[in-house]
Amino acid sequence: MDKNFAARRRRDLIVAGALATLAALAPLFVKDVYVQNILILTLMYAALSQSWNILSGYCGQISLGHALYFGIGAYTTELLFTKFGVLPWFGMLAGGGIAALIAMGLGYPFFRLRGHYFVIATIVIAEIGLLLFQNWEWAGAAMGITIPVRGDSWLKFQFLRSKLPYFYFALGLCCLAWFVTWWLEDSKWGFWWRAVKDNPEAAESLGVVVFNSKMGAAAVSAFLVAVGGAFYAQFLAYIDPESVMGFQFSLLMALPAVLGGIGTLWGPVLGAAILIPMTELTRSYIGGSGRGVDLIVYGALIVAISLALPQGLVSLFSRAKAKNQVKNQVKGATR
Amino acid sequence: MTALLETRGVWQRFGGLVANSDVSISVGRGEIVGLIGPNGAGKSTLFNLIAGVLPPTQGSIWFDGEDVTNLPAAERCQRGVGRTFQVVKSFETMTVIDNVIVGALVRNTVMREARGKAHEVLEFTGLAARADVLASDLVPAEKRRLEVARALATEPKLLLLDEVLTGLTPTEAQTGVALVRKVRDAGITVLMVEHVMEIVMPLVDRAIVLDLGKVLVEGKPADVVRDPKVIKAYLGDRHAVGA
Amino acid sequence: MGLLYGLIAVGLALIFGLMDVTNFAHGEFLMIAMYLSFFLFAFFAIDPLLSAPLVAAAMFVFGAVVYLLIVRFAMRAKTNAGMVQIFTTFGLAIVMRGLAQFFFTPDYRSIPQSWLGGKTISFAGIFLPEPQLVGALVSIAAFAGLYFFIHRTDFGRALEATREDPGAVALVGIDKNRVFAFGWGLGAGLVGLAGAIMAVFFYIYPDVGASFALIAYVTVALGGFGSVFGAFAGGIIVGLVEAVTALMLPPSLKSVGIYAVYLLVVFIRPRGLFGSM
Amino acid sequence: MTISRRDVLLGATATAALVPLAARAQTSEVVIGVIYPFSGGSAQQGVDAQKAYETALEVINKDTDFDLPLAKGEGLPGLGGAKVRLVFADHQADPQKGRAEAERLITQEKVSAIIGTYQSAVAVTVSQICERYQIPFVSADNSSPSLHRRGLKYYFRAAPHDEMYSAAMFDFFDALKKKGTKIETLALFHEDTIFGTDSGNAQAKIAGERGYKIVSDIKYRANSPSLSAEVQQLKTANADVLMPSSYTTDGILLVKTMAELGYKPNAIVAQDAGFSEKALYDAVGDKLEGVISRGTFSLDLAQKRPMVGKINEMFKARSGKDFNDLTSRQFMGLIILADAISRAKSTDGEKIRDALAATDIPGEQTIMPWKRVKFDEMGQNNDADPVLLQYVGGKFVTIFPPQAAIAEAIWPMK
Amino acid sequence: MLSVHEITTAYQGLVAISAVSVEVTKGEIVCVAGANGAGKSTLLKSIAGAERPRSGTVTFDGKRLNGMAQHHITAAGIAYVPENRRLFPRLSVRDNLRLGSYLYRGEADREGPLDLVFELFPRLSERLDQRAETLSGGEQQMLAIGRALMTRPRLLMLDEPSQGIMPKLVDEIFQAVLRIRDAGMTVLIVEQRMAECLEIADRAYILQTGRVLMQGPAAEIKGNPDVRKAYLGL
């Protein structure tokens, strides 16, 4: 059994490595910038969703306010860059750090809340953040911040036409988020989080410090999301509160994980790989009609997937595994 | 040598309701102590106080020679208090082995060691064949055993068992009894709540009867079941004879 | 205004709070109700005040059908039922918006004239716009009715029981789907009432629900899930806080006041003001 | 009304859906990208814009007898009569999506130029992308002054921006004051988006320069569920003039709330947007008798220039609406852009840019009351004179500047 | 009265009971016993409609039950008290009982059986306004049986009524079962405490790994040496 387990872990790593390599080679074949753009967004949302999944999927604290951390990452990076000339690379880390600190600060009061009360509190806090930025003159308020793009530069992480550097960064971020999840999954923290999600009281009785576990998950999750936000800001070269802190980001971070399989290693990646291209393509190719058909298709797909596969798309893959499990059960029952 | 566990004049009130009043009990090292009493006598509350789910309104709790009254549950677990829940609280979305690993992580921070420990405990409790099954797919009796396994994985000095033998046929219960004995033989002190007198009385070294939040009687099982106060409050006439 | 929030929230309180089903399409229910009211006015010249019961009835059917066709299945999920509900109803909301745009066009509509529109009662220097006054009265009546319904009728009891344990009501011969379909119908019907009154003084377009939905959620949570009276009180508090914040802060920040009060309340009372769950 | 519109729309859907499969642009065809919100809260503007562009397309591609550039003859004479084809894209008011669509249009659809976008925030990113790909971007209807001040080479705006509009308003106030009307205090009411903020800032700045007192400056959250508290404050301030900068939705709510709370200002001078929308007047027209809005277009120009009326009829046939401030700008924007492409005799971005920079169209050859169309080095047309219109008896009448006015302002409004 | 004919029920791909047949005659107390996982609870669930049998038939007074929705089966006269009782924890004792008579809400005297419930379990009448969740385990079991009686069943099915209950109350509950039978109802009971159960039962079935191992009059089963060894631990 131990062997099985180790083999599964190794197999996950190998599959991920293969996928990452495949993805890294994709630009050799995909020259179309529009498609590249979709790939970048897909990778970015996969990374964001993977990060969201740490807190909400593994630790069970459903947050619909992660746009706050996304926005903080974006704003920290760009404010530091435009006001103080700090390179985005440092801004990114600073943004991540600040987001993690805020997540922990918010954790103190928030983690006492349960269920809907918690979810609504996360929505509300992100909304407050949005309103504050919308009215914060120094940070550009509603006008946002336009990032001066002066030509290709790795140092400033900006590129005029080439999407490749962004692509590789997004890929890297996605791999990082995946790897962090993979690593945490078989660590004390990973076990603690899942225990806290399933039954905090029992977890506490087994020596799990529930509160600290939640804090840890929140910090890791917020940090990664903020780095994603910083990336998005650099990628877009323009930010305003609505476009980096709006509620839609919170949803878009959660959706891939939910569709793919919440609290699973592969769910977010799988969900993003299907959802994001679908969103983009329905908008691009049927959105121009002005008749809302794209919305109908998009919404109906979400409903259909939620209803048909409540465990997410990964459950399709685990069918085979489930069969094995039944076999084990039979063995166990007839023992 | 001091007792492993001692409660000194413990009170617990919930609003106007008094769940425990002035409960002082002690459990010595290596003992199996049975805690019995009518439903609602405050047994579960006392368990929760000992496990640290909530602090007592008044009084103190001493474990292993130290005052642990104000320590949270997780900290008490680290010091060696393991417990099961009357209403089974497995981690439903995790497999059996993963459930046990959570417990094992208290003493083993290296994953490989924790996993090894968990396998060991599953063997010990006879759940090894079910290691990779989701906890939600276990039948109730297995879930109770999982509760015990999980608590054992924390390598406790004191194990609090809350109705783990409930709902078993007499034969099955015998296996359970054997397991509890095995646990004690491994050097773990056991404090257990149980209703099925036929099973629990031969097993325990000492029985404590709670009624209306107070200690009613305490002593050797044979004496306890003959105590008229116990018969009146708890056993009813028939069982007094039966036991 | 607070009572109007309360009226919008009460339907949600029923679905979200009393049946413990997340409904992210609540704002869209409101939108549909407003359109219904608009079309009844535009084609048959029925004043929104008169059409309110019609709209409520139509919405009742709509809500029940939505439950039976979609939500029922979302509730069957064994694991992460919460997320499945959130995203099913969220998807539903998007579909409803799309359909509204498809059939009603994205044009802004509004009802120019009605018996109530634009009339104001001046009372000791305080102006009370009639539509909102009527809204407030309807809202109070709706709350009273719902309160009575939940606490004094067998059906209300059955609803509570079904929320507590949907699997167990069959043990006493209750069909949970009928109870919940009725509950959803009632919730949607109440939103229908709100929509009809809103239509008098608000503009109507496919995305109109979004601005109200969040406030409605906050209102329900502030009052506490599972409490009709809580939603009522929540509505009043939200209205008051909004008015007060608008005086103290730049008006663009007035919602911050509402949100802050929500956070404050749940930090002190994690189950809202009157919540039981 | 819906049936005929739906048919038109169906045609558009089919085109839009098939477009990506079509062969890339040949010389016989020039492709122009049109980026608007076609879903979400401002979908109506997108759909209206679509009709305006289709009207312009008809003028360009068919032989029509108007005194407009490209009207006569079919297609673009500079490119041997090549036809213009439009590709519509939906940005859903999201700068990221606008950017992605711009990039898609440029690289996949091979558009020669892009026109858009209604929301200013989206114009920011779309124009950035155009700059990077050296494709001209014509900002048809964005009025935020900050847009052209970013040093972009490929950005062009034929229409006025909010500072020009605001200046016109204050010119108007100054003129009234000379005649003895009392205008001292102003109340600003603007939403918290780029448009509202820019407009509010411009008005505040000019008011300060010209000695008007702002007694209330209210920034409110766009699409609020309620504006009662805000209107209460306006009422308390009771300024001589109320100057709202709001989109349609908030405009409707503002006017209705004002009526409910019994607030009747002396005058409302609006920063266009919602206040030029038919929907607003359909909803609350009776309460807006005498409201003044800035604009760049007025139908009564048809009295002087008959073609304005005829083109308006063409538009009306498609949309069921009259031209308004937005749709007229969109119409004109495409004409100007297509004219430049024709003169560039090329579909190359840089050549079109140069042709645009060299544009000089006299005002008479537009449907707008502008002096002429000529871009400065920042791509802004400073000769696009705004007008002030007053809503009287169910339609707009030009009241300012004097050379365009056909009636005197009614002041106070009721 | 109740006739279960060769039903097979499975969940998650595992067969829990296969081809089990059980007969219950009017006025009987029938006990079903067996080890954990033998399929006793599944049998009751299959009759009550909480699980759908894959094959076989369940008929009650000549009416075929399988395929019917669970609430219709309740309405047909079978009351089922599941193992975990499934009370409405946040509702009062009174409301729990009232919900029991939900099917008769149109009737003037809808709470007819209430007297019987209070007679059987006098302590419930003292706790009418308490929330069900604040009752002790034994009282909850009484309430669950009481609620089931309020549906005016002809057949009452109890799943492990003695589980987790102190000895004194176990007796009370078994006595109550006898009285319920005397009041004209039929009882099908699944029990772990076979000794006590066989004492009050008329007939008994023993299930093992999903099949009927043995059946017959209770006294006979109790005397069977194999049973004594395997199940009674004697």
From TrEMBL, chain A:
Keywords: Cell membrane, Membrane, Transmembrane, Transmembrane helix
Name of protein: Branched-chain amino acid ABC transporter permease
Pfam families per record: BPD_transp_2
Localization per record: Cell membrane
Tagged with keyword Disulfide bond: no
PANTHER family on file: HIGH-AFFINITY BRANCHED-CHAIN AMINO ACID TRANSPORT PROTEIN BRAE, HIGH-AFFINITY BRANCHED-CHAIN AMINO ACID TRANSPORT SYSTEM PERMEASE
Organism, as annotated: Bradyrhizobium campsiandrae
InterPro entries xrefs: ABC_transp_permease (IPR001851), LivM-like (IPR043428)
Topology versus the membrane: Multi-pass membrane protein
Transmembrane segments: 54-75, 87-111, 117-133, 166-184, 215-239, 251-276, 296-317
Lineage: Bacteria, Pseudomonadati, Pseudomonadota, Alphaproteobacteria, Hyphomicrobiales
Automatic annotation (TrEMBL), chain B:
Pfam name, any one: ABC_tran
Residues annotated as domain ABC transporter: 5-237
Any one GO MF annotation of this record: ATP binding
Keywords: ATP-binding, Nucleotide-binding, Transport
Organism domain of life: Bacteria
The keyword Cell cycle belongs to this UniProt entry's keyword annotation: no
The keyword Flavoprotein is assigned to this record: no
Role according to the record: Involved in beta-(1-->2)glucan export. Transmembrane domains (TMD) form a pore in the inner membrane and the ATP-binding domain (NBD) is responsible for energy generation.
Protein name: ABC transporter ATP-binding protein
Organism: Bradyrhizobium campsiandrae
Classification lineage: Bacteria, Pseudomonadati, Pseudomonadota, Alphaproteobacteria, Hyphomicrobiales
TrEMBL record, chain D:
The family this protein is said to belong to: Belongs to the leucine-binding protein family.
Domain Leucine-binding protein: 30-374
Keyword Lyase (UniProt): no
PROSITE patterns associated with the record: TAT
Keyword Transmembrane helix listed: no
Signal peptide limits: 1-25
This protein's name: ABC transporter substrate-binding protein
InterPro entries for the chain: BCAA_transport, Leu-bd, Peripla_BP_I, TAT_signal
Keywords: Amino-acid transport, Signal, Transport
Lineage: Bacteria, Pseudomonadati, Pseudomonadota, Alphaproteobacteria, Hyphomicrobiales
UniProtKB/TrEMBL annotation, chain E:
GO MF annotation list: ATP binding
Keyword Nucleotide-binding belongs to the record: yes
Ranges for domain ABC transporter: 2-234
Keyword vocabulary terms for this entry: Amino-acid transport, ATP-binding, Nucleotide-binding, Transport
Pfam families membership: ABC_tran (PF00005), BCA_ABC_TP_C (PF12399)
Top-level division of the source organism's lineage: Bacteria
InterPro entries (alphabetical): AAA+_ATPase, ABC_transporter-like_ATP-bd, ABC_transporter-like_CS, BCA_ABC_TP_C, BCAA_Transport_ATP-bd_LivF, P-loop_NTPase
Entry-linked SMART domains: AAA
Function statement: Involved in beta-(1-->2)glucan export. Transmembrane domains (TMD) form a pore in the inner membrane and the ATP-binding domain (NBD) is responsible for energy generation.
Family, similarity comment: Belongs to the ABC transporter superfamily.
Stated name of the protein: ABC transporter ATP-binding protein
Organism of provenance: Bradyrhizobium campsiandrae
Source lineage: Bacteria, Pseudomonadati, Pseudomonadota, Alphaproteobacteria, Hyphomicrobiales
